[in-house]
Design goal:
Length: about 270
């Protein structure tokens, strides 16, 4: 399999007339381009999974007529690539005014906890199933690559809500607390505990298995670290500007400079125990 990928890689580079020195410069950028495209795709899937989970739950409970009716925003670059103007288009104020707080909490939880949390667990089990196949094909390795990114974006999207935004005055966690009629700090340890378990499960049990399957390829030794070093900082900056309050900003800084290196260390220590 390694020889097969080497033939494709060298054939592509030779086709455009590059020498060995140029290849040494070009190959890291080819790897970076693959990561860039994977991030764009994984973010889009993760994002729409989250928003449609809100919308379909609201529709199922009778609070929306059309589950596909999101606020889609305008076709600008930031919206096309990173979906910055899109939201679930659910009127929580009307739900709470009708004294249906439990339903409102369920709708709010459907995105981060049910869709992204559940999606990450499903992706993890898919990766385990692919890894158990005796023969690794091009299709199985491609699936493993894509599901690794999907799992990472789901796992650390949950992390961006709990704990990073669990104490904020607005957003999904605040809506869950409001719907349940409890203060944010009461749900904080519960949702944070789930997020910690999810992150440790992915970093210690799922990603090391994937990493081993790519370790024989060029840049394969960097793959697991690249996934963590890309996704955790991506989701750590969500409240760093203070738009979710001071506790969120402080936790985002801690996530970036404490949690990220801790997870990288945990990942490489997990590799050593295999």
């Amino acid at each position: 399999m390694q020889a097969y990928f080497d033939i494709i890689r060298n054939g592509m580079l030779n086709l455009i007339g590059t020498g060995k020195a140029t290849q040494q410069i070009a190959l890291p950028y080819i790897y970076g381009l693959a990561i860039f495209l994977s991030v764009i795709l994984a973010h889009a899937i993760d994002f729409f999974l989250h928003e449609f989970a809100h919308s379909f739950t609201a529709w199922a409970l009778g609070w929306k007529d059309n589950p596909f009716a999101l606020n889609y925003g305008k076709p600008t670059i930031d919206n096309i690539l990173m979906q910055q103007q899109i939201d679930e288009n659910v009127r929580y104020a009307s739900i709470f005014a009708a004294h249906s707080g439990i339903q409102g909490a369920l709708i709010a939880a459907a995105g981060p906890l049910i869709a992204n949390g559940g999606g990450s667990i499903i992706c993890g089990h898919v990766l385990r199933a692919i890894g158990k196949q005796p023969l690794q094909t091009v299709w199985s390795l491609t699936g493993m690559w894509l599901f690794t990114w999907l799992a990472a974006f789901n796992v650390f999207n949950v992390w961006s809500y709990a704990p990073l935004r669990a104490l904020s005055s607005h957003g999904d966690m605040a809506l869950i607390a409001e719907g349940l009629g409890v203060p944010n700090w009461l749900i904080f340890p519960i949702v944070t505990g789930f997020a910690f378990w999810l992150a440790h499960w992915y970093v210690q049990n799922i990603l090391p298995n994937v990493h081993e399957h790519f370790s024989h390829f060029r840049f394969g030794a960097a793959f697991g670290g690249t996934v963590l070093g890309t996704t955790i900082p991506f989701f750590s900056i969500v409240g760093m500007t203070g738009n979710y309050g001071l506790p969120s900003a402080l936790m985002c800084i801690a996530s970036l400079f404490l949690f990220t290196p801790a997870m990288l260390a945990m990942f490489y220590l997990s590799l050593g125990r295999r």
